[in-house]
Amino acid sequence: MPEPHSLTIPILEQAGFGEIAKLRHLKVDHALVTSLVERWRLETHIFHFPTGECTITLQDISLQLGLNIDGLPIVGPTMFDCEEMCDTYLGVVPVKGESFIGSQVKLKWLRQNMLPLGEEPTE
Question: Which among 5, 57, 66, 72 could disulfide-bond with 117, CB atoms 3.0 to 4.6 Å apart, if both were Cys?
């Protein structure tokens, strides 16, 4: 994954996503994931290990990804017209069925259709 453009970094930091933008290739340890799935208890939402119980908290994610979890949650309506949103914010309307997963635009489509920023883009 390419580095974010230098003009987008301050915007990402202001939005609280500066640390996440620094994440690059994440190697998935399939054996570890399988082991964790086997130890997950759906009834209690806890991992059961020979040494005791463990759960992942919001604070764990905050510490690992550098996300701010203090303050009020961001909430709002979740029913949007995806085509209208894409047209408004991206200037392009993806083809339904091949560019969406439910109401989410596929990252593959974004990478293929959003041109890289030019030499001197505006904010």
Answer: 5
